[in-house]
Amino acid sequence: MNALNIKGLTKVYKGGTRALNGINLQVKQGDFFALLGPNGAGKSTTIGIISSLVNKTAGSAEIFEYSLDSQPVDAKSCIGLVPQEFNFNQFETLLQIVVNQAGYYGVPRSIAKERAEKYLKQLDLWEKRNQPARNLSGGMKRRLMIARALMHEPRMLILDEPTAGVDIEIRRSMWTFLKEINEQGITIILTTHYLEEAEMLCRNIAIIDKGIIVQNTSMKSLLATLNIETFILDLAGEHQTIALSGFEHRLLDAHTLEVDVAKEESLNNVFEQLTKQQIQVLSMRNKSNRLEELFVRLVESGREAQLAEDEQKNNKELANG
Amino acid sequence: MVNRTMIALQTLWIKECTRFLRIWIQTLVPPAITMSLYFVIFGNLIGSRIGQMGGFSYMEFIVPGLIMMAVITNSYSNVSSSFYSAKFQHNIEELLVAPIPNWVIIAGFVGGGVARAILIGIIVTCVSMLFVDISLHSIPIIIITLLLTSTLFATAGLINAIFAKSFDDISVVPTFVLTPLTYLGGVFYSLSLLPEFWQWVSKINPIVYMVNGFRYGFLGVSDVDYLYSLGLLVVFNVVLLGFAYSLINRGIGIRS
Questions:
Q1: Do A90 and B89 touch (CB under 8 A)?
Q2: Is the ipTM of this complex over 0.90?
């Protein structure tokens, strides 16, 4: 069963901005799915339509086979939303925020209080339960939004940049928590700008740009399309030139070498050549995350195609004109 | 399903009531102080020189109007500020993502405004009892007028907040429309004191009917027929509630 089934979703804002251009997207039940794209690509609009915060212009969306148009109550009951911006009442206590949210979904108060204890404890917020939300740190506010979204025990959780501005320790604990709830069967859709987060957590991925899905596949098969990886090597001693035959390489400074390694090439070959030149490698790392590399390429190639199309159009108009 | 909807409505209503009770210094105390001043200045100091109006002491005459004035301003401002704050802080989204029918959103906010108006009405009545003995001609008419008027102005406050784009926008209507209409709505005088032309002009002011309907409930006297007042209140309520429902249904001011 599909947790999410979007067909021909289109959104044109007042003023003519076309945020979505008839996108189709399916997310399987139980999936941990990444929806990535540059700023303004259409991610938040897509999430806004799914969660009923944005009115669509055309198309349809089904949540666990419930139509958002004809069965909105059933469809909305399946979704828990963790939005990008803090959108709780800053003057209410944590307990009020989560218990009220459960109430909006029809959860009786006694059950809501039990769940509040469960989720606030799991997210390490129980001690703060009687404090106004405005007193929380940024990381705590993010966790509060996750707790709030889980209060009605949704079948699908949508997280719009849930770890933005959160320190690495809390981010890792959030990853662990999200993995756990996904293993319990909750479908998760995640948007993030931390691509290592998407690579680490998600099994499937869609990349959206300019309101179009430019890639929709499994994380494994997407990463397999990466032909070249760039490594940075920290070298002992100072070097002016280094010869590495068969590899594109650059000396970034006297101690740092950048090497492009094709998928079919072996890294041993690089080390052999360096050893022959008596160059010692102290450490090595990827220049950028693999997914980041692919993401940039996909988005850039999309833009180049768009530019070429625009140029072709302009030329035609000039020829006609 | 019905049970789920009722839990949602109850949650929203309790939340709204908790909000104005939490900030009681801003919401409950000022009307009590303002009305005490009205009673002292207009009732005791000036009123004693005016003598009788409509067959009652001036103090007795203005009590229903002053209660109604507090009810109108508080029901309006409660919903306009609460709903606009929810829009401003984006926590209106908590309601929009939930499986709540749109009428529940309206009922929850308007219900909160009505609750505050009733509480304020009770407080102002208690304050007035320190200055004058209150007579009660018809308790059902008092209750019905109070409920219809507070619902009407709470709904008007909601509509104001739906369209508002800044905090200024929710203070424009109370300052430039509501206050003048209330002061000219027969709170402090009987329409019969006015020249015929101004009596006719005053009858265009809807607040005249609310004040007089309410006064009829207390004193049994009114410048207009109380049944006509109640009828108008029902019509205004139906029109404004229908308009608010249509706005929320279309997502005006709350969905992009």
A1: yes
A2: no
